[in-house]
Structure formats: structure tokens, C-alpha cells
Design brief:
By secondary structure, the chain is an alpha/beta fold. It has one domain: Rossmann fold (3-Layer(aba) Sandwich). Strands 1, 2, 3, 4, 5, 6, 7, 8 and 9 form a 9-stranded mixed sheet that branches.
Length: 273
């Protein structure tokens, strides 16, 4: 397996006093790579909405299914922004199971993800895996680094899983997606999952948003119409915009406990022609 130089030899400082979405997600999934601040906010959220850990697993299961589907369409390059702490199987493991020569670039802004990037860099001998620490809004730096591993003249699957609801319109959520879309070659795919208020009572969605904001985090759970805007100019893949659990469930195994749970997330995959 070819590995690129990340250029990240100097360890970044981990702010353990403030919750971080990647570490909270790890806590929801039962991981150990989180801190008291992450667990505290996580417990507050689960205390109000006990299904959140199941919803997190449903979201991750969508990522696995979408990766399998896109790899099945012949795509051999993946750019995953908002990677999170490694939880097997990781995206490259799913992709390389179908296509051993698949090349994957991961990106996250949390130093603890970098600390575990060695697990993300273990792939097949035929493929390539790289990792860059960068903020999702710094698309220029992400694209510059990704070009060391990925050929942007060929199709790429751009994966933004459970990321964009942490970025407000004012912080450029739509602009960063447009910038990334513009860099993709025809035949590329955009894969997004995103929390929405549409599946739950308005009061409950407002409470979750307020809890995140109280923890110092942005939370913008977008409606279907606002979610669809991310895919402007692309051709939707069937079944279009649906709840996470409804996107090609035949491509994966059901998540334990999901039978009576709504994921609370819209998902979609679309193609650039």
C-alpha cells in the first residue's frame, strides 16, 4: 500500500475541555477515544433522546452501503471529509473489499483523529490511503493535499457524512460544497448524510439544537429543501433524498434496535455529469 507524507509531524494540541463532534460520535458508538466534556454533552443528549446511539449507527451503516454502491459503479477514488475517529470497518476497508486498488483520502480537524490516523492508513497493497488534518471549510488546503493521492481528472466519490449540520450558512456550508463539487471530474459522486428536524417534533429538534449550542457547537438541522440545495447541478441516484435507513437497505445488515427508530437524518447520493 502506498502512503503519502501527511506533513503533520508536529502534534496539534487537543482541546479536551470542549466537546468535539468526532469524539462525541465516538462516544455514541461506544468508543473510548473521548473526554469528559464529550461524554457530558453526549449524556445530556441521550438523556433527552435515548435513541441517538442507534441513530449514529444507522448513519454509519448508510456510509458503508453508499461506499459499496459507489465502488460497484466503478469509482476507485474516495475523499472523505469529516472522517471521525476510526471505527472498523472504515471507509477504505469497505471500498477496498470491493476494489483493492481503491485510493482514499481522509480529512478531519480533530487532533485526536490524527493521533489514530495509523489505523486509517492500513489498506491493501494495491490501493492508497492518506490523511490530512484540516478544517472542512479550508477546501483549498484539502484539495491541494488530496491531489497528492487522488487524480482529479478521474471520478471521485466525495463523502460528507454527518458533517454539514455542524457548519452554518454563515460559515459557508453551501459554498464549501460548491467549491468541492467544482473540483470533481464528470462521473464523480457526492454522498451526504445530514440531521434534519423533519422526522421529529419541532420542540425536540429545538432542544437538541440548544444542547449542542450550550456545548459551544454549531447545530443546523436542515429541512429537506435546504438539504437538497447541496446537490444542485447533480443527478440524484435512486431513491433520491430519503431517511438514512431507507437508502438501499439491501446493501447492508440492519442495525440492532433500528426497527422502531427514525434515523433523524436525510441522505442522498448524486452524480456529476
Amino acid at each position: 500500500m502506498e502512503q503519502q507524507d501527511t506533513g503533520l509531524d508536529t502534534p496539534a494540541r487537543i482541546d479536551t475541555g470542549k466537546p468535539h463532534p468526532a469524539r462525541m460520535y465516538d462516544w455514541f458508538l461506544g468508543g473510548k477515544d473521548n473526554y469528559p466534556a464529550d461524554e457530558e454533552l453526549g449524556r445530556q443528549l441521550v438523556g433527552f433522546a435515548p435513541d441517538i446511539p442507534v441513530m449514529a449507527r444507522m448513519n454509519r451503516a448508510f456510509m458503508h452501503r453508499a461506499t459499496r454502491w459507489v465502488a460497484g459503479q466503478g469509482v476507485r477514488q474516495f475523499l472523505d471529509i469529516g472522517t471521525g475517529i476510526p471505527t472498523e470497518p472504515n471507509l477504505h476497508q469497505v471500498a477496498q473489499e470491493i476494489a483493492p486498488d481503491a485510493r482514499v483520502v481522509y480529512c478531519d480537524n480533530d487532533p485526536i483523529v490524527l493521533a489514530h490516523s495509523e489505523a486509517l492508513l492500513r489498506g491493501t497493497s494495491e490501493g492508497g490511503v492518506d490523511y490530512v488534518q484540516a478544517d472542512a471549510r479550508d477546501t483549498a488546503a484539502i484539495l491541494e493535499h488530496a491531489r497528492r493521492t487522488l487524480d482529479f481528472d478521474r471520478p471521485i466519490a466525495l463523502s460528507l457524512i454527518a458533517l454539514l449540520h455542524f457548519i452554518s450558512n454563515e460559515d459557508g456550508a453551501y459554498e464549501l460544497v460548491e467549491h468541492l463539487k467544482e473540483a470533481l471530474a464528470p462521473g464523480s459522486y457526492l454522498i451526504i448524510s445530514h440531521l434534519t428536524p423533519d422526522f421529529h417534533p419541532e420542540e425536540a429538534s429545538r432542544k437538541v439544537t440548544d444542547l449542542y449550542k450550550a456545548g459551544g457547537l454549531t447545530m443546523d438541522m436542515r429541512s429537506r429543501e435546504r438539504f437538497a440545495r447541496f446537490f444542485e447541478g447533480l443527478e440524484p441516484v435512486a431513491p433520491g433524498i430519503v431517511a438514512a435507513e431507507d437508502w438501499h437497505p439491501e446493501l447492508g445488515e440492519p442495525v440492532p434496535g433500528q426497527e422502531d427508530v427514525r434515523s433523524g437524518a436525510y441522505v442522498a447520493v448524486a452524480r456529476k455529469n
